[in-house]
Amino acid sequence: MEFSLKTPEGFYGRIYTYGFYDTCFYDGNGGNVNVLRISRANGFPRCGTQQYGDVITNIVVVQFNDYVQTSRDKKYNLTCYFSGPGEAVVTSNYLDTRTDG
Question: What residue stretches are annotated with the ZP domain (predicted)?
Answer without folding.
Answer: 1-101
